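By convention, each integer encodes one residue's backbone shape. The lines below illustrate.
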Amino acid sequence: MPLPVLAIIAAMIQDVAGTLVGQDFGAWSRADIERIAGAAGWSIRENQHSLIIETGGPARARSTKVSYGQEDYGYGEQTDLQITETCAADELAPLHAATLAAVVAVLGPPAMVGGPHAWAFWRNPRVRLERDIRRPSVTLRVEPAEPAEAQEYSDAEWSPDWQPTDLWNAEPDVNSDACKSLLGMMSYDARMADTWDEFETSLRELFASLSADLPLLLDYVPHVGWEISEADGDHMVAGSFNSDGVHVHSVVYNTTQSTDYPSLPLEPDSGARVAEIAIDTIRGWGHASPVRLRHQCFVTGPVRLSAKSGFRLA
């Protein structure tokens, strides 16, 4: 289906996102990218590693050229089409929400969401939408699914320093057609944390992501509970992230010892504060390493969630 000429040629990402993800990218040739850009009234200029797409508006777009060796994965001449729009910090959440809604209107609910960057993912077509807090922006990327998955598998298997960039992911509805589309797709874990430094870094990053990203994804993941306990002891620290706030408490089983900490709002700074409470509590248990800890998470059905960085919540 050809891309219709847009009413607003000066592109804003939320205005064109739905149209772009509904395109037939053909063989992902340069001609295919030129066809799609031209139908939108956009122009293309050459760059060494990409085609720069001039949208005439605040959104910036490009399509990356295939590089040496990538043909082996099945790519055509181009490996993606990416469009990004920056904005003021207080406009980021509305821009993300509007762009997500535009994609959902065409593709339906995402197959997966996660963090960092409050991303949403569809497999067929392979589409990823995310936002960046540090440089307030929203990015939509479309890729050919099979080549992208083949390259990811190769990198995970053969690159010794490769690590997944996602700290956690969730399937919003395990019974949905979107979730079923993930069948056969590989998933990859970071290596387990063997030292306290690795464990604490992972915990801080995960909780920072949950507190920053869940506010934008509550329609898909309304609640995340977590628990860290001793494999062969009585100590436990647990908490939750949801629209009511960020909560944490600790318990020593078989005693009357328990501590409930004040609830915090569900916002970016709260994750760091809860992580420090959890880390201080766990340090007090006196273990030489984190390998004797158990980790669990709790979500409300039909959501399925896993956290994969450094230690596992699943």
Remarks:
- The CA atoms of residues 266 and 292 lie 30 Å apart.
- Helices lie at 13-21, 30-39, 92-107, 145-158, 177-180, 196-217, 268-283.
- Residues 196-307 form a domain with the Dna Ligase; domain 1 fold (CATH 3.30.1490).
- The longest helix spans residues 196-217.
